[in-house]
Amino acid sequence: MFLIIISRYFLIAGMFHLWFYVWKKDKWVKRSLSRKVTDKKQFYTEVKWSMVTSIIFAVAASFTFVLWQKGYTRLYVDVNKYSLWYLPVSLLISVLIHETYYYWLHRWMHKPKVFRVLHKVHHDSNITSPWTAFSFHPLEGLLQAIILPLTIIIIPIHVFVLLFQLTIMTFSSVINHLEIETYPANFYKHFIGKWIIGATHHSLHHKQFRYNFGLYFTFWDKLKKTESPRFLSLFEEKTAKSLRTEAKRDQE
Ligand SMILES: [Zn+2]
Ligand SMILES: [Zn+2]
After folding, report:
1. How far apart are the C-alpha atoms of 109 and 22, rounded to whole Å?
2. What is the Å distance from ligand 2's center to 83 Cα?
3. How far is CA 103 from CA 160, 168, 184, 199, 221, in A?
């Protein structure tokens, strides 16, 4: 389990690192959310904490596997056990549970006393990178690891839906910590796009601390008025600059 989880981290974070910071660096530099890039010291620290998180996730996964074997979960393998429409619906339910759990957990972790113990490790990365995606204190890692096992004890979920959700989780975390805005211009005006968290959104969380607590979606932040007032202008600035560059390149 540990090997699967840590390889997934290295593979996905590594892919994004190479593409955005090395191979296509020039193309994305205009969309960078920080002037500075992270140094080697931060990289090693983040990889160290991500390895600790991977151990915790692996223990949680193994524990869940045993629960499943003993019949304590509602995880299922036969696709026809429920209607096919239930597959996407169960994914949506599980993702919304995860979102709600994380938003409130995250708000709680920002209380000063809790922050110092649980959440400071993650925020030591003021400028984030794909490697920040799983850089958590072990206690935060544990609190994050328990929600999916709890969900599948209560709600029937197909095993592939669960694996798919874990994949979304990894990609979403890497994209949100990329420190380069990857979404197209006006994405936040799109009827789906405006509900999805991206790099600008989460970068502001790491810099301002008081806003943007969501995990995948923006709806809790919008509802509880914790969305950063800087978000829209910064997103427009980052995506417009790149458009201007492209237009300039077209003219040349
Ligand atoms: Zn935070
Ligand atoms: Zn973060």
Report:
1. 34
2. 36
3. 25, 17, 25, 17, 8
Q: What is the pLDDT of residue 246?
A: 52
Which SS3 state, helix, strand or coil, does residue 252 take? Answer: coil
pLDDT in tens, 60-113: 999 999 999 999 999 999 999 999 999 999 999 999 999 999 999 999 999 999
Ligand closest to 203 (CA) is 2
Per residue in 233-245, pLDDT tens? 999 888 885 455 5
β-bridge partners, 180: 32
- Residues 209-239 as b/e (b if ≥16 CB within 10 A, e otherwise) read eebbbbbbbbbbbeeeebbbeebeebbeebb
Structural domain boundaries of the chain?
Answer: 2-184
Shortest-distance ligand to the CA of residue 102: 1
φ, ψ dihedrals at 26, nearest 5°: -65, -40
How many angstroms does the Cα of residue 204 sit away from the middle of ligand 1?
10
Distance 172 CA to ligand 2 centre (A): 11
Ligand number nearest to the C-alpha of 107: 1
Ligand 2 centroid, distance to 200 Cα (angstroms): 11
Report if pTM > 0.70.
yes
Residue 190 CA, ligand 1 centroid: distance in Å: 26
Hey, which bits of 58-170 come out as E strands? Answer: 75-76, 157-158
How many Å lie between the centroid of ligand 1 and the Cα of residue 110?
Answer: 6
Length of the chain: 252
